[in-house]
Amino acid sequence: MLKTLIGDYPVTRQFRTRTDRFEFAQYQGSVASAFKRVVRNLEFDVAEMAIMTFLVAKAFDKPYRLLPFVVMARYQHPYLVTAKSLSPKELEGKRVGVRSYSVTTGAWIRGILAEDHGVDLSRIQWLTFEEAHVAEFRDPPNVQRAAAGKDINAMLLAGELDAAILGAVPTDPRLKPVIPDPEAAGKKWGEKHSAIQLNHLVGVKNTVSKATADEVYGLLLESKKAAGNPPMLPHGLDANRRNLEVAIDCAYRQKMIPRRFTVDELFE
């Protein structure tokens, strides 16, 4: 039995029925709440991981390699919100909340702000609410931890934060996207980079044999097929090479990893 952490998505639903082959982990809240167990405790043979968590983990020699199977991807532009009237450039000198500095949505949005809006990321005071998934990762100097018990949404609405990067698009009408027309901006980003913004993929521990990893990958593909093969979730190395190149570049530019990994070494 392979100890496995996989969230419940349409593309993984059939896979998660294979209790004859996998011992599926229980977790509270979202699957991301268990990512620390992957990269700190090395608890799982097969694990869903956010791409930035995986890249940072690789930088610290955590014993996992990727399978080219995407379980979540989206353009991140709608997830930077404010209760004020602020443009992206006006975030300089302001306080912006994010769950943790190294989370994937946060990294993508910082890249968007710097590249597409000329924002100096070092001039933003980032406020975080939990540690990085990878224990060895160190936040940059302009990152501060919120006081215990503080809530990112409450602080945003109270004006204690000027903006925040959230995990879901808020339904509160008081909160508006910082990036104008975020859906169109996401489409434009995709066309510019010939890529999508990856969130979560699947990894396997290095002790898992190639034959077993191939079997896991095959079962994931069957599960995706049963879900109708959604096109926004590409599978295969060729289909994801450009997506991964852009993700690596995003992490490197923000000094989250010490060098630009090659795509192929993520699968070694």
Notes on the structure:
The two termini are 23 Å apart. 41% of the residues are buried. With 268 residues, this protein is an alpha/beta fold. It folds into 2 domains: 2-74 and 196-267, 3-Layer(aba) Sandwich (D-Maltodextrin-Binding Protein, domain 2), CATH 3.40.190.10; 77-192, D-Maltodextrin-Binding Protein, domain 2, CATH 3.40.190. A 6-stranded mixed sheet has the order 8-7-6-9-5-10. Helix content is 30%, strand content 18%.
What share of residues are in beta strands? 15-25%
> Under CATH, the topology of the largest domain is which?
D-Maltodextrin-Binding Protein, domain 2
For the secondary structure, the number of strands is 11
Using the CA coordinates, give the radius of gyration.
Answer: 18 Å
Q: What's the mean pLDDT score?
A: 97
CATH architecture type of the largest domain: 3-Layer(aba) Sandwich
Tally of helical runs: 7
> What percent of the residues sit in helical stretches (DSSP H or I)?
25-40%
Order of helices and strands: EEHEHEEEHEEHEEHEHH
Morphology call: globular
CATH superfamily of the largest domain: Periplasmic binding protein-like II
Task: Write out key terms for the chains shown.
alpha/beta, 6-stranded mixed beta sheet, 5-stranded mixed beta sheet, 7 helices, 11 strands
Helix-strand blueprint:
Layout: E1 2-5, E2 22-24, H1 35-39, E3 46-50, H2 51-59, E4 64-73, E5 80-82, E6 95-98, H3 104-117, E7 125-128, E8 143-145, H4 152-158, E9 163-165, E10 176-177, H5 182-193, E11 198-205, H6 210-226, H7 237-253
Parallel strand pairs: 1-2, 1-3, 6-7, 6-9, 7-8
Antiparallel strand pairs: 3-11, 4-11, 5-9, 5-10
